[in-house]
Design brief:
The structure holds two protein chains of two kinds.
Chain A: E1 2-5, E2 10-11, E3 21-32, E4 35-40, E5 45-46, E6 53-61, H1 71-83, E7 87-91, H2 99-113, E8 118-123, E9 141-144, H3 153-161, E10 174-178, E11 191-195, H4 202-209
Parallel strand pairs in A: 1-3, 1-11, 2-5, 3-6, 6-7, 7-8, 8-9, 10-11
Antiparallel strand pairs in A: 3-4
Helix pairs in contact in A: 1-2
Chain B: H1 2-12, E1 26-28, H2 40-43, H3 56-66, H4 73-88, H5 98-110, E2 122-125, E3 130-133, H6 137-154, H7 159-173, H8 192-209, H9 212-223, H10 234-243, H11 249-263, H12 272-286, H13 288-299, H14 308-323, H15 344-353, H16 357-367, H17 370-379, H18 387-395, H19 404-417, H20 423-430, H21 436-448, H22 453-460, E4 461-462, E5 466-468, H23 483-486, E6 494-495, H24 497-506, H25 509-517, H26 523-539, H27 543-556, H28 561-564, H29 573-586, H30 621-624, H31 628-635, H32 644-649, H33 656-670, H34 675-689, H35 696-709, H36 716-730, H37 735-738
Antiparallel strand pairs in B: 1-5, 2-3, 4-6
Helix pairs in contact in B: 1-14, 4-14, 5-6, 6-7, 7-8, 8-9, 9-10, 10-11, 10-12, 11-12, 12-13, 13-14, 16-17, 17-18, 17-19, 18-19, 19-21, 20-21, 21-22, 25-26, 25-27, 26-27, 29-34, 34-35, 34-36, 35-36
The chains are: A alpha/beta, B mainly alpha.
């Protein structure tokens, strides 16, 4: 189980099992054409030394200027190097027009990090059908987010609750859910990523561990 | 200290971004976190219908207008400046990149290119995995000024100037956060000014290296050095060294004492301004309740233009902290302590945002002031004994009052919920000039009072204030997008949730048919209405409705004639139903219900590759109310009338028998399950009795595809496989068999 720790103070030192890791927002990149602005994490996230960690990079894009260039990959690499971790997640709800850029970005990150770094991406449920573009990028997992889904939700919930699955193999290792939304009945055992809109505490985590 | 500021401001500015699934648009009919855009009218006192979900900066503006104080033009600019800074998320940053300017100026003096690598202004902590500001813009700006001055004073090639440069590089090398580097003490041979500079550089180096106690000690020495040009600012830097990272009372108290000493010393007047600012930040942490009271008083002063922006920033930030505000759900943190309400402004804002009926009523009865009347009205319910008293008081509010629309809306809300139908008053208000969100608010009330279906449909139509794919709705309209872009892009009327809740779930098909036959709907809604009504007729096996609607379907979607061509020759209900199902298979975007906002996609020969085709089981919680949680998340309120019976019973012209008929139809439609299963069952049944129908190969091929592109359950794969088997068994040479090599699990 991985806890998404977003930009609010997070004291997760109560986590005493390696079964629960933390995917913390490390930085947010704002893209507008070739321009990139990186905003570091400013809120502390504290964990025990043995807690598995993953650095998450959120990407926001200007809908008026399709992102381009290599700067984003360079900045992520620099920021990730500071964290001294071996697992990274990119969170970018790329529009159709932004997909070529995103594919290039992920390919660049794989080239920079090599095979030993675990590369995860968050994925819209619609990206997880068989034959989707997500299958062509060099990543280790795509985490379908079954929350904040909009009109797709009924179809996805109906499918998952009836034992169906995502068509794409890369989407079948993990599922992303949120504390503040209904969760579909998940028939398949998967690594769970859980989003909390505020700060995690022991009680919230215990409810999922049970 | 800066770290504290950033933490507070980041949280307060709502820099929490998590917007999934941004590929779909949503229509916003009324803004809930901020007023209509542009905010010029709101700032000028045209407040529209105030919502408790507005960010507190807007409620402050509203309160000041309601209290009769308003804003002069300079004050309005201050408020605008506040909103702009919240929007850019640049908090205290200046537009000028002083770090880059330092590198450029430094390189010019040394005759070299500026170093490519920027000096980091923030430093990473592996303990917290977060970044903290260490080297501020001010540091680089001061260094540029000093460098120019010393170059002119000592001469470019002088030892004093060259050593100053080297020492300054050492000072800034501490910005990297690596091993601390402290400049060596100045040689006694250097001039007194150069030696004083060096003392200052050494203190600064300790400060940037994170050794605040040593920095404090050295700045204190400089403050007593009458020969030092830095003695004037040194007392402030002493306080800053103490206050930096201070979160506990002893350090905050010590910093406050230092700053108050500065502020009482007229000889230190040049640093009174920055010291007052620092004192304010220290106070916000030492005594946030007291500081919020002081800030509220400052915000309610006439002629507040000299400090309004900063006061408002600090006030909202302090309240956010005190309330442990959860920007996601737009409510206080679950462990937050009650905030003392020591002043009217804070009392009113927190009451308006809560549902404290007794307090607002008490305050209104004691004061008879406009703000408290608005607050009391906003909380009042029809059964309250005070409701009539508040309604009567609100009726005296003049139309040009900033409170008029909010009071009128709540007055009529209360009356309607008491089963009164104030149509004339609502019509009068709607003929006036209203902000777009307020217009939609009042149209919603007027729809409920409709005397017949035509009126209902007329007021159900609303023009969105915004169509957007960016789900986050924060205090400010957005990080990227300016107001002109985010102004309503859609001028086409749509249905909001309140009308489709009733139409979909409690309005019988009989009345849908009247709607289709009427001229009250614009083309986009008429197309959706007609196609959804036709789908309902097929699902309900309502042959009479189907026969009536079939020509209407072709009128709103002429391409449907290709699939409905046989209808005129069909003699039985079963034949017409098959033709209808065949047509539905070709119109994947058609659903047996209406969508709110921009949810409806006109039919085309494409299926949606994201599987938003046909429909999921209508009994499923999320098919009809898919945006319920998004709505809640965005606005922090339930907002949606999720009980269809309650929603329908508010509509004046709907009889209980209508509602019962609509409910029964809804239950029958829901019992048909997801679209692929229903459509497949019809086609497979037809295959058994009419295998010679030339449309069947195509119908079976499309049926197989519904198993991939439609909403599935555990039975769908079996239907897909059965359709595939029938297709290949009965029509092995058909082009459709060739195009359908497999079924879908």
């Amino acid at each position: 189980m991985m806890l998404w720790a977003w930009e609010s103070p997070q004291d997760l030192r109560f986590l005493d099992t390696p079964r629960v890791g933390v995917a913390y927002l490390a930085a947010t990149l704002f893209l507008s054409g070739e321009e990139v602005r990186l905003v570091h994490r400013h809120q502390p996230v504290r964990t025990r030394a043995k807690t598995p960690l993953m650095a998450v990079f959120r990407i926001e894009s200007d809908p008026r200027k399709t992102p381009s260039g290599k700067r984003a990959a360079e900045l992520i690499r620099g920021e990730f190097a500071v964290a001294h971790l071996s697992a990274i997640q990119v969170d970018f709800d790329a529009r159709r027009s932004e997909r070529p850029f995103y594919q290039t970005l992920l390919t660049d990150l794989r080239a920079k990090f090599g095979p030993s770094t675990f590369i995860s991406v968050t994925a819209l449920a619609s990206w997880c059908e068989k034959g989707s573009w997500i299958e062509s990028v060099p990543i280790d997992e795509a985490v379908p987010m079954v929350f904040r889904m909009g009109p797709d939700r009924a179809a996805v919930f109906t499918r998952l609750s009836s034992g169906g699955d995502f068509g794409s193999r890369v989407c079948r290792t993990s599922t992303g859910i949120s504390m503040d939304e209904p969760v579909p009945e998940l028939k398949h055992a998967r690594r769970l990523y859980i989003f909390h809109p505020g700060s995690w505490d022991a009680v919230s985590v215990a409810s999922y561990l049970r | 200290m800066k770290r504290l500021i950033i933490i507070v401001l980041l949280a307060a500015a709502g820099v929490y971004v998590w917007s999934c699934a941004i590929d779909y648009d949503v229509a916003v009919f009324t803004f809930h976190r901020h007023p209509d855009l542009p905010r010029t009218d709101f700032l000028a006192g045209k407040l529209g219908v105030l919502e408790p979900t507005y960010a507190r900066s807007y409620l402050y503006v509203a309160y000041r207008h309601l209290a009769g104080l308003g804003f002069n033009s300079a004050e309005r600019e201050q408020v605008r400046s506040y909103w702009q800074d919240r929007e850019s998320a640049d908090w205290d940053r200046l537009d000028v990149n002083w770090e880059l300017r330092w590198r450029q100026a430094r390189a010019r003096v040394a005759g070299t290119k500026p170093p490519r690598d920027a000096l980091p202004q923030e430093r990473y902590s592996s303990d917290t995995r977060a970044w903290t500001l260490y080297c501020s813009d001010d540091a680089f700006r001061t260094a540029i000024g000093t460098m120019k001055d010393r170059q002119a004073h000592f001469g470019r090639s002088s030892a004093a100037f060259r050593e100053w440069l080297i020492a300054q590089d050492t000072v800034f090398s501490n910005c990297t956060g690596r091993d601390p580097k402290i400049p060596k003490p100045a040689s006694p041979r250097l001039p007194a000014l150069a030696r004083a500079d060096r003392d200052y550089q050494i203190a600064a180096a300790y400060f940037y290296a994170g050794d605040e106690p040593e920095a404090e000690r050295r700045f204190r020495q400089i403050a007593t050095d009458s020969a030092s040009p830095w003695r004037g600012i040194a007392p402030y830097l002493v306080a800053r060294s103490i206050a930096r990272f201070a979160e506990q009372a002893p350090s905050l108290d010590r910093a406050e004492r230092e700053l108050r000493t500065i502020l009482t010393n007229p000889q230190l007047a040049p640093i009174h301004g920055i010291s007052a600012n620092l004192l304010r930040r220290v106070r916000q942490h030492a005594d946030p309740e007291g500081e919020s009271e002081a800030l509220a008083a400052a915000l309610m002063r006439p002629h507040a233009e000299n400090s309004l922006r900063q006061d408002l920033w600090d006030y909202t930030s302090v309240l956010d902290r005190l309330l442990e505000w959860d920007p996601w759900n737009n409510k206080p943190g679950k462990d937050a302590r009650p905030v003392p309400r020591r002043d009217e402004l804070t009392d009113w804002i927190l009451d308006f945002q809560s549902n404290d009926r007794a307090h607002s009523l008490d305050r209104w009865r004691r004061t008879h002031s406009l703000p408290w009347l608005v607050a009391a009205l906003s909380h009042a319910q029809p059964g309250d004994t005070s409701a009539r008293e508040l309604i009567d008081a609100s009726a005296a509010i003049a139309p040009d009052s900033p409170a008029f629309l909010t009071a009128a809306w709540h007055r009529n809300r209360i009356r309607i919920n008491a089963h009164e139908y104030p149509r004339d008053e609502l019509d009068r208000i709607l003929t006036g000039s209203l902000p777009p969100s307020a217009r939609n608010h009042f149209r919603s009330l007027r729809m409920v009072t409709a005397g017949d279906l035509s009126e209902f449909l007329r007021f159900a139509q609303r023009k969105p204030v915004l169509v957007t794919s960016i789900m986050d709705e924060k205090e400010v309209p957005g990080i990227w997008v300016d107001e002109s872009f985010r102004r309503a892009s859609a001028t086409i009327p749509r249905f909001d949730r309140d009308s489709i809740k009733v139409l979909n779930e409690r309005m019988p098909l009989r009345q849908w048919r009247h709607a289709v036959a009427s001229d009250i709907l614009p083309a986009n809604l008429k197309q959706e209405f007609t196609l959804a009504a036709f789908a309902r007729a097929i699902l309900l096996s309502d042959d009479e409705a189907g026969q009536e609607l079939e020509p209407a379907v072709i009128r709103v979607y002429p391409r449907a004639e290709q699939f409905l061509g046989a209808w005129a020759g069909d003699r039985t209900l079963e034949e017409r139903r098959f033709t209808g199902v065949f047509a539905l298979l070709h119109m994947a975007s058609v659903k047996p219900y209406l969508s709110s906002g921009v949810g409806f996609v006109p039919p085309s020969h494409h299926m949606d590759s994201y599987r938003n085709n046909w429909w999921c089981p209508l009994g499923s919680k999320f098919e009809l109310d898919w945006d319920l949680d998004d709505y809640k998340q965005r606005y922090g309120t339930e907002g949606v009338r999720s009980d269809p019976d309650a929603a329908a019973r508010r509509i004046g012209f709907l009889k209980e028998a209508d509602i019962s008929e609509g409910r029964h139809e809804m239950e029958r439609i829901a019992s048909t399950g997801c679209a692929p299963n229903f459509l497949s069952a019809q086609i497979l049944a037809w295959t058994k009795s009419h295998s010679d129908d030339h449309r069947l190969p195509e119908a079976l091929a499309l049926t197989v595809r519904t198993g991939r592109y439609g909403c599935k359950d555990e039975k769908t794969a079996r239907f897909s496989r059965e359709a595939w088997s029938a297709l290949h068994r009965l029509y092995p040479k058909s082009e459709w068999s060739r195009k359908t090599p497999y079924w879908f699990d």
